[in-house]
Amino acid sequence: MLFFIVCCSIVLVASCLLYKILCALNVSIDELRIVDAGIPLPDCILQAVTVHCGQWNWMPTLCRVYFVGIIETIYITVCKRILPDRVFNQKTKTGNTAVVGDSASSFVNLPVAVIVGADSGIGVEICSELLKNGFRVIVGSRSLKACHDALTFVKKATESDKLHILKVDFTSFQSVRNFADKVKLYLQDKRIRLLINNAGVMNTPFSTTIDGYESQCQINYLAPFLLTKLLLPSMDTMEGRILFASSSTIYAINNLDTNMPIRKYGLNGLDHYAYSKACIAQLAKHMSRTTPIKVFVYHPGTVRTKLFQHTTIFTLPLLSKIFDFIMLSPKEGAETPLYLCLTRDNVESGAYWANKHNYHIPSVTINNLWDRTDLLWEDTMLKCGLTRHE
């Protein structure tokens, strides 16, 4: 009973706060539905508030990250846990799960998916559904044992042996290059249909990688970018899709300083986290303009996974129980990336996706210069040790 009262109190207070914010913003419903007319009203409100949050330069990035998280938690509590979807007349996109079809009757004809970060949580759910849909799946993991243990159940449940696990450590660029070489060797003359960069960390204690960069920045955006560039020539140019895991925190930061990956921090690692997720979103948008392959950035939502193990508020005994109830399950978190993987809809490339709807990627300054994503691109190429021909 006490748990229920606490939950209701939090929702009531937070809802009042949200109402006041919306009144202050004076945002109309028509203005909210700019990108996609089919976006439900609660999603529009969520998007409007997070977008405006990014414009509050007077507020530190850390505070904006927490604010975006609070607003998203309110959204999940009201729309996913308390009130059913039909209250808001939400029409969810289901995609087409018959992507492969009956023609893929032999092992050699099956499309190939490469996913990094599939040894727990959302990655396991994505891997499971891809196997069910007839994909050959190559999984990259830092720990072969942990990945094997996590995916053994998946192999049994899907009755599929079309799973291949390779070692990769995103804290080492050389490991990423070795992984890419092994994938190409495994492919032979086949092409990659799906490349899913799902690996990520958040708010970890400060550490530098073997390459000299802050670990969150390397794991969340430098290494995924490097892997994608190395495997881009092996992608299916007709039906290929590239996915990058991002976060709603891309709206909490509006200037990207290219020196951030070499800066230290103390207790606050969320600034670097938001930076890394904003960088990969901007790079993905830029990449979509240079290749016929569809490129997507997805936010799975606030999902109860080990991603939050280093953020104190999510580990406190009482609050932990509340978050267990509120936060999305890995299966729910996998819905958006799976939609992008399996749908036959003509989905927009270079967009940010959340709740199976596309939103615009916010414009930011690079080193305080507007419209200079090319500077971030060139800097990332240099940091990853990539040449213009790679």
Compact summary:
With 390 residues, the protein is α/β, with parallel strands linked by helices.
Note the total helix count.
13
User: What kind of sheet is the major sheet?
Assistant: 8 strands, mixed
| Beta-strand share of residues | 5-15%
Q: Which percent range fits the helix content?
A: 40-55%
- Tally of structural domains: 2
What is the distance, rounded to the nearest whole angstrom, between the alpha carbons of the first and last residues? 60 Å
Query: What is the CATH superfamily of the largest domain?
Result: NAD(P)-binding Rossmann-like Domain
Q: What do we call the CATH topology of the largest domain?
A: Rossmann fold
Rg, alpha carbons: 20 Å
Overall geometry: globular
Determine the mean pLDDT: 83
Report low-confidence residues grouped into runs of 5 or more: 95-108
Number of strands: 11
Structural class: alpha/beta
Spatial sequence of strands, sheet with the most strands: 3-2-1-4-5-7-8-9
- The succession of helices and strands, N to C, reads HHHHEHEHEHEHEEHEHHHEEEEH
